[in-house]
Amino acid sequence: MSAAADLRVPARLETPRLSLRTWRRSDWSAFAAINADPRVMEHLGGIPMRRVESDALADRIEDHWHQHGYGLYAVELRATRRLAGFIGLSHHRAMPDQVEIGWRLAHAAWGRGLASEGACAVRDLAYDTLGLSSLISITIAANTRSLRVMEKLGLSYWQEMAWERWWLTIYRGTPTARSDTRSRGSDAAR
Length: 190
Known about the structure:
Layout: E1 12-14, E2 18-21, H1 28-35, H2 51-68, E3 72-77, E4 83-90, E5 100-105, H3 114-128, E6 135-139, H4 144-152, E7 156-163, E8 166-173, E9 186-187
Antiparallel strand pairs: 1-2, 1-9, 2-3, 3-4, 4-5, 6-8, 7-8
Helix pairs in contact: 1-2
């Protein structure tokens, strides 16, 4: 991970139930297990990732942090300190000029509002710290769980587009659209 001086955002964010932090090499094994779960990968190609593919994704996540000073945070459950996935900001290859807010959580973390909780903290960071005027989030129409999270963030349907073998559904939001959904997250010390 890049040195703290290179970061444009805090290295750690805390929400009531989550710690969002920069990655450690020791996260990669747990991350590979998440990516190998067919339920997690259902709307991400449908094929579980092999370890080498997961490690390559972790490399890209780390490269993004180095290049932009922000990225996809590793997410830990505060109660257990176990890696639960990621939530953060990136530039999707389909729309590289836009900043995307995204998440991927282990199946065991689903259905508890954790994606919304962490994504609200990241959304607020994007608008308040980075000064972004908009965010997008990308999925496919069948991924109704992610669509609900997008709506909770104050994002709304923007467009659809073909990209590679996908038909993408893209939501977009602005700082004024977040209304009463401000996070209760806090920046931890860099």
